[in-house]
Amino acid sequence: MTSRFCVVGLVLLGSMPALAASRPRYGGEVRMAHAGPPEVGEPSLADTPLEATLLGLLSRPVCSVTTEGEVHPALARELSRPTPQVSRLTMPSATSAGAMARAWMRLTSVEGASPYRALLFPLRGEGRQISASGATLDLALAFPWPDLERGLCHPALAAPASAATPGPFSAAGRGALDAHLGWPRGRPYLDRLQLTATDERGLARLWSSRQVQVELGVSSETDTVSGPLLYATYLAFSPRRVPADFRQAVESAIDREDLTRLFVHGPAVPMPHLLPPALMQQGPKPRPAAPASKPSRTVTLVYDAALDDQRAVAERIQVKLHERGYTVALEPLARAALRARWAKGDFELMLHALLLPPAPGPAFAVVLDAAGRKDLLGVELPAIGSLTDAAARDARTRERALALGASLPLVPLYAQGLGVRAMAEVGGLVMDGQGLPALDGAYLLPPEGAGIGGRP
Questions:
Q1: Residue 376 in 3-state DSSP?
Q2: Residue 196 reports pLDDT greater than 60
Q3: Cβ-contact 156, 44 below 8 angstroms
C-alpha cells in the first residue's frame, strides 16, 4: 500500500496545540454536516466551494495547489515538462487517462460550454483535441504558459465521479463514504466519513449537541476557519440589451460593503475590481454619480436558484436599480440552464458566480471568457505567458485586469469562501490553495492522556 504523504507547513484547524503533536492514526469515522443538498455530479457545475469540497471526496483533478502556490500530483501519478511547450501527465491507468481527456474535451464543446474551458485555452487546439497514449496525456501548448498546471488543478477539471473511484473516498450507502485504499497519493487516514445535509439552524443544533465533529458552510464565527476567498460573484449584463450608462447606474446604486455584510452568508469580502482581494490588491474605487437620465426600462435578472445568497442579492439589486428607473424582473434558474443561457448570450442581466483558480493568470482567463470576451484570450494570455518570472506574470495580469475592468460587461460584487469548523478531536484538517478543506488528510486524535494507538 502506498504510504500516506506527509503534509508539511500547513496550519491545523481549531485551537489544539497539545493534541496537534499527536501521531496521526489510521482508522475511525468522522461525522460531518454541511449546509444544503448541493449538486455534486458534474465537476464544471459543482463549483461553489461547498460543492467542490464534497465532489472532491469522490473525484479529484490531476493535481492540487498548496497555499504557497506549489503544484503536486493528485489523481495523476506524475507531472512533468519534457519540453517547455509540453506538459506530461502520467495517470494511474489508460482508462483514467482516456476519461480525463474526454471530460476536458466535453468542457470545450458546444453542449458542455463552460467558462472554465478558458483554463485549457493555452493548449494547442484550445483543448478540443486531447488524446491519451496509454496512461499518458501529453498536452501541447499553443504559446508559452508556465501557469498551465496551476489551472489544471481547478476542481472544475476533475475527473467525472464513477465506479473507477478517481477520488480518496468512495460512496458506501446513504451519506457514507469509505476510504479508497488504492488512492494514488495514499489512502485517507479515516476509514469513513458520515455526511449529513441540513440548513443553518440544523448546523447550529448539531454542533451544540456535539452530534457532528466537522461542519462545512457555516457563517463567520470565532471558531470558523476559511481559506482564500475565491468564489467571485459578478453582475453580468448584455451591452446590446441595456442602455450605455447601465454600468454607471449599477455602480452608483450598489454599496458592496452593505451588500456583503447584510445579504451574503459565510466568509465574504467586497470585490470592487475584476479579481478578488486574494489575487489582487483592492484599491479605492469611488462610486460614480447617478446617471442624469432615469430610463423607464424593464429588464430581467436571472440567478442561480440553488443559492440563497444570490436570491437575496438579486432582490437587493432589484430594489436599488428601481431608484435608477429600472423595473427588474427576477428569474431563478437551475445552474445548468443558467450556464446554457450564458453560453448563448441569452440574457439581459445575470448573477454569474465563478470559483476562480488561486493564480492571477488562470483566474483572469476564466473571467475574460465569462465576460463573453474569448477574443481577448488570444491577445492577453500570450503576453502574460511570455514572462518567465512568476511574480512578473502575476503583476502583468493585475495590470491588465485593472485596465480592462471598466470595458467588460461584468460588474464585480463580492468574493466568498467556505466556512469550516472542527471539534478538537479532529486533526490534520487543512485548507488548500483553492480555499477548500483537504478532508483526506484529516484524522482522529487519541483521547487526551492516551498513548500512541489510543491506549493509555
A1: helix
A2: yes
A3: yes
Q: Is 451 helix (H, G, I), strand (E, B) or coil?
A: coil
User: Average of pLDDT values for 133-145?
Assistant: 96
Residue with cell 477548500: 436
Q: How far apart are CA 73 and CA 187, in angstroms?
A: 15
| Spatial contact of 164 and 96, defined as CB atoms under 8 Å apart | yes
Angstrom distance (rounded) from CA 12 to CA 34: 20
Q: Which residues pair with 133 in a beta bridge?
A: 136
Rounded Cα distance, 261 and 257, in Å: 6
178, amino acid identity: D
Predicted pLDDT at 282 = 78
pLDDT at position 108: 83
- Pairwise CA distance, residues 64 & 120, whole Å: 16
Query: Residue 107 pLDDT > 90, yes or no?
Result: no
Beta bridge partners of 111: none
Helix (H) or strand (E) holding 220: none
Counting runs of H as helices and runs of E as strands, what totals does the chain give? 12, 20
In whole angstroms, give the CA distance from residue 133 to residue 82. 15
SS3 141: strand
Q: How confident is the model at residue 281 (pLDDT cuts 50, 70, 90)?
A: confident
Cβ atoms of 118 and 369 within 8 Å: the answer is yes
Torsions phi, psi of 314, nearest 5? -60, -40
Give CA torsion, residues 81, 87, 92, 95, to 10 deg: -150
